[in-house]
Each structure stands twice: as C-alpha cells, then as structure tokens.
Amino acid sequence: MKYVLLLEQDKKFQGEISEILRAIDPELQILTFLKLEELAAWVNVLVSQGAHAHFPIDTDPAPQVPLVIMQKEQMAGRHISLIKQVRHLFVRRGLCSEEDQTGFVLTSFDDPDLNRHDFEDKAITNVIFKPFDKLILEQHLRYAMAGAQPESTQDVYRMETKVMVEMLKDVDLLSYCEFGMVTRSFLPITIGKVSKYYSDIFMTPEQRYVYAQCINCEKEPDKEEYKATFQYVGVETFTMNHIRRKLPAKSRVPFTAVYQNKKVTPEMIRLWIMDEEVREKVKTILADFLPNMPAYEFTKEDFKNFKAFEATDLVICDTHSFASLSKYAVPEQIIPVSFERLPESFMREANGVLDVLNLNADRQYLKMKLEFIFSRVNTIPWEVKVQTIVIRVGNPVEVHQVSEAGLLLSYYRPISIGAFRRFVLSSVKEPEALPFTSACATVEEKG
Predict the structure, then answer these.
(1) Could you tell me the CA-to-CA distances from 359 to 259, 289, 412 in Å, in that order?
(2) Are residues 191 and 215 in contact, defined by beta-carbon separation less than 8 angstroms?
(3) Where are the alpha helices (DSSP H) in 64-116?
(4) What's CA 276's distance to the chain center, in Å?
C-alpha cells in the first residue's frame, strides 16, 4: 500500500491535490494534516514506536510513502533541515528505499519577495505554485510519484521536438577588460572554444550576453582548478561601450594575456569574401591600420586548382564562405567577418578560429584587434578590472521532448538525480527572457 502525506490548511487546495492523486493511483491512501504541529506529532510517534504505529506491517507489499506534500508557508524557513531529517527517518523505518527515497513537494503562492534559490536543494523534489493549474499540477505530481523511475509517456503528454536550449553554469569571473576576461574553472577548457557568457557587465537593451573564445587555460599551482583567459568575439559597438563604462581607471591593473591558439605571425592576407560590401569595408580597414601588409583577393577561379593556403596566410572570409574553407585552411588561420550580429548556429561552428570580427565595432577596438593579430608575439598587455563575481556560461543542449512539467534532453555526461540546472531559450533580441530552473528527475544511458 502506498501513502501520501499532505500538509495543507486550505480545503480547496486539499481537494484539488487529493483529486489528482487519486486519479494517478486510485488505491493511494492520503493522510491529511491541517497544521505542521499535527504532522510533527505523527512523525514523533513514528520515531518512538516505529512504522507499525501508523501502518499495517503484515501487508505485501510493505507500506511505502513515495511522496510528502507540504505547505511552504507553514515551514517557517526550516524546510530543508526538516525534510532531510524526515526523509532519513523514512529510510530507517522502511517506508522508502535508499535508492528511491521519498519525494518532498512544497506548495506556495508566487510571492515577488520569494527567493527561489532557497528551494534549490536535492531534498526538495519540486515547488508548485498556487493557484494550481490542474494540468500542470497533475504532471508535476506524476513526476514526483514516479521518483527515480522514468514516468510513462502514456501518463504525461510530451511533444516531440528537436530544439536547442542553453544550460547555464555559474562561473567565477576573476577580471575583465575591453579585450577579454579571466575566469576560474574546475575543468580544463579547450583552446579556441567559443561560448556565450551572461552577465550585467555585458547587458545592453539589445542583448544580455557576449561571445568569448578561450585563448589560454593553465592549471593553478597546487590547486585543482584552472585559470582560463578569453577574448571577446563578434562584439558590437554598443556592447563594447557598455563594458568600457564598467571599467573605471582606478580599478585597472596590468595583465599579460598569452594566446595559445596563435601559432605563427601572418605574412599575407587572403580575402575570400563574396559579399562586395563586406569586402570593400575590410579593404578600407586594412588600408587604414595595416597599409604595408600585402593582401590578395581570391575569386572562384583561384580555387580551380588550389591545394591549400600557406601556413603564414591569414584568411579573412565572410560567413557565407566560412564552411567552404575547411579543406583549404586550418581554423587558426581564419577570421570570419560580418556587418550583422552573427547567428547562434554560426557561432557554434566557429570554435578554433583565430578571431571573429563584427565590422560595425568601433575603430579603436578593430585597431586593437588587428595590432595583436599581426604582432610578432603571442602575448598582449591588458589592463583589467579585478573583481571576483559570478557570471554564467550557456552551453547548448538538444531537447527531444517537452511538456508543461519538464523536458527530455541529451547531455554528454550523467546528471545526478535532484541536481538543479538553469536553462534559457536561445534568443538574439530578447534580453527580457529569464532563465528557468529544473531539477533532474531521471537519467537514462543512451544506447
């Protein structure tokens, strides 16, 4: 026999929850408590007398408590510690297993002052807000009742899809400047990898993020952590101006960035640009900032018998030509350029390139970038603002199914049951789109 404990003062909400629980399992027994003191007294009897004081112990299967639903307002800020104590008690008394422990769901009104981070603990299965939407309430309770077992697709409607969302991860930002930033990581980051980073430092009316490319990653001496250096890529003028405003002169200190993906100093510029407007803009920039650097414009005729670029060639291309260059040049030789904000799909393919330039960036920024690219060294002095704060990196993941209650996605490694992750829908022009938080309900190895 399965039992659910329900702590809820409001008769209306009691009825809605009980109705859905009985629809999920008609044989389910629901023990209702109006006040926390009543539930506490019930638990105290369980502690002193054992499970037989509340349940018949000679039944087969033995009594189980798969779920406890508690009114958050009655918890008085003690919900985490109380839940952990009761869950451990249920394991000891045989009311749930160590592998599939009792789920705890909190109900609450969506108060603007509510700190949702307070609920991000593996002890809490979910938080469901009042007034209830019956369909969402049903799906959340089905997930909670299923525990660590995958919920049947016959019981929860899921829409098949194939979309990308971003899984957000907190990152310690150690310092930043108008050229790039330095972060702390507990895992090494691939040199050349391009990722999207979210922070108020980068937020403008148009976007909430900046793309940055890892150019150096070194293990810290005597520590199990890494210091990673990034350069911004594809940055527009309004984003750069916002970053500069965050950099008061008195907060700056010297820092030398080492570029590990810069193998050689370019000796010849090769222009593989089909868009005439882009090509003329690039030629003007090169004439202004690098008047003595030879440049050659490639045409389609040049590629009829072409084998490969020389190691000292730097290839500047537009986004339409980027894919066709893979058989002629290595990524470290390539700089894609564009007048437009580069789409998500392109930035995911830009890993390993030397740089990505937005031609609408201001001249000071473009000049600084080109001076480094064509310098004879692989280091550049930065002036950074030192400030350890938490920013977020958005890693794209593929979603296969969605419902009102959750989503099914593919990820390269297991996520522990109950672990919290934040997601955001990939969007270019929606800075108001807020992250949503999910807890891992089940994990299955993909065959």
Answers:
(1) 22, 14, 35
(2) yes
(3) 79-92
(4) 38
CA gap 114, 146 in Å, rounded: 28
| pLDDT value of residue 69 | 96
In the DSSP assignment, the letter for residue 434 is P
Q: In whole angstroms, what is the distance from residue 427 CA to residue 160 CA?
A: 21
Q: What is the mean pLDDT of the chain?
A: 84
The conformation of residue 220, written as its DSSP 8-state character, comes to P
Q: Write down the pLDDT at residue 432.
A: 54
E strand or H helix at 242: helix 237-245
Question: For 313-357, what is each residue's pLDDT tens digit?
Answer: 889 998 888 888 878 888 888 999 988 888 877 887 888 898 999
Main-chain dihedrals φ then ψ at residue 420, nearest 5 degrees = -95, 140
Nearest 5 degrees, angle CA 325-CA 329-CA 330? Answer: 115
Closest CA to 375 of 289, 300, 302: 289
- Residue 153 pLDDT > 50, yes or no? no
Q: How many CA atoms lie less than 13 Å away from 40 in the CB half-sphere?
A: 8
Distances in whole angstroms, Cα of residue 352 to Cα of each of 48, 192, 376, 387: 64, 4, 20, 28
Residue 40's closest CA among 7, 88, 2, 80? 7
pTM for this prediction: 0.75
Contact between residue 34 and residue 96 where contact means Cβ atoms under 8 Å apart: no
The DSSP code sequence of 323-351 is: GGGTTTS-GGGEEEEESSPPPHHHHHT-T
Encode pLDDT of 392-442 as tens digits: 998 888 888 887 778 888 888 888 777 788 888 765 455 556 678 888 877
Q: What is the DSSP letter of 51?
A: G
Q: How far is CA 441 from the centre of its chain?
A: 17
